[in-house]
Amino acid sequence: MSGYQLIDNPEEKRYEFRIGEHVPRIEYIRTRDKIYLTHTEVPGELEGKGIGMALVRAALEDIRDKGLTLVPLCPFVALFLKRNPEWKELVLKGINIA
């Protein structure tokens, strides 16, 4: 585990970590039973430390726990899913993660 606490911030429509003054985040659109992950952003000072991957993993755990269907619109999330196929079960049927 990453050691960071995942925050689901529905007011801002994003998952986030708070690391000092920095807020890495994944923006989303949520419907009743689906969640569209649209954009992942890690502040430059934190890049290359695995924080983005930890954030995606934590968000996917939350999505699984809530029983939502994932629509990965963010290329970073799609790359994570390609490298970690065990999470593809969350993805909306018919979407191909190449």
Provide an overview of this structure.
It is built from 2 helices and 5 strands. 26% of the residues lie in helices and 24% in strands. The model has no long low-confidence stretch (mean pLDDT 95). The chain has 98 residues and is an alpha+beta fold. It has a single domain (7-90), classed as Gcn5-related N-acetyltransferase (GNAT) (Aminopeptidase), CATH 3.40.630. The protein has a 5-stranded mixed β-sheet. 26% of the residues are buried. A hairpin with an 8-residue loop joins strand 2 (14-16) and strand 3. It has helices at 51-66, 75-83, and strands spanning 7-9, 14-16, 25-30, 34-41, 69-72.
Side by side, the strands of the main sheet go 1-2-3-4-5
What is the number of independent domains? 1
Order of helices and strands: EEEEHEH
Look up the CATH topology.
Aminopeptidase
CATH H-level superfamily: Gcn5-related N-acetyltransferase (GNAT)
CATH architecture: 3-Layer(aba) Sandwich
**Biggest sheet statistics:** 5 strands, mixed
Number of strands: 5
Return the CATH class.
Alpha Beta
Structural class, by secondary structure, is alpha+beta
Radius of gyration: 13 Å
Strand content: 15-25%
Number of helices: 2
